[in-house]
Amino acid sequence: GAEALPVIEAHCEYKQPARYDDEIEIVTRASLLTPVRIRFDYDVRRASDQAITASGYTVHAALDADGRPCRLPGRVRALLAERRTTRAGGARWARPGVGGSSPAARA
Q1: If we measure between CA atoms, which residue out of 30, 81, 88 comes closest to residue 60?
Q2: φ, ψ (nearest 5 deg) of residue 81
């Protein structure tokens, strides 16, 4: 089975500044590219006005214990297929310690 999920590609577009004390939300969407590769798309939003300050994506490859590519677990592939058909949104995370927020998902 998959033992690791290293980043094999990353891209980021900076759109507006986020200041040090800004509370931000990161909206993440996952999609299956192949049985071995998964892509996460990200929107970084300023919580005060929901402005998108950055967007991007990362692509990850599933590797086995020997570091060779392998299929993602069936439960992961099934979850992504289910989310694709039932929900268009993503998970929301807030920076811990800002405004009393916690790193818990706000889905």
Answers
A1: 30
A2: -65, -40
pTM comes to 0.73
Quick: pLDDT tens for 16-50.
999 999 999 999 999 988 999 999 999 999 999 99
Q: With H, G, I as helix, E, B as strand and everything else as coil, classify residue 58.
A: strand
The tokens for 75 are 């439960």
Instruction: Name which of 11, 61, 8 is nearest 34 in CA terms.
Output: 61
Tokens of 68: 């060779």
Residue with tokens 């005060």: 48
C-alpha–C-alpha distance, residues 42 and 87, integer Å: 16
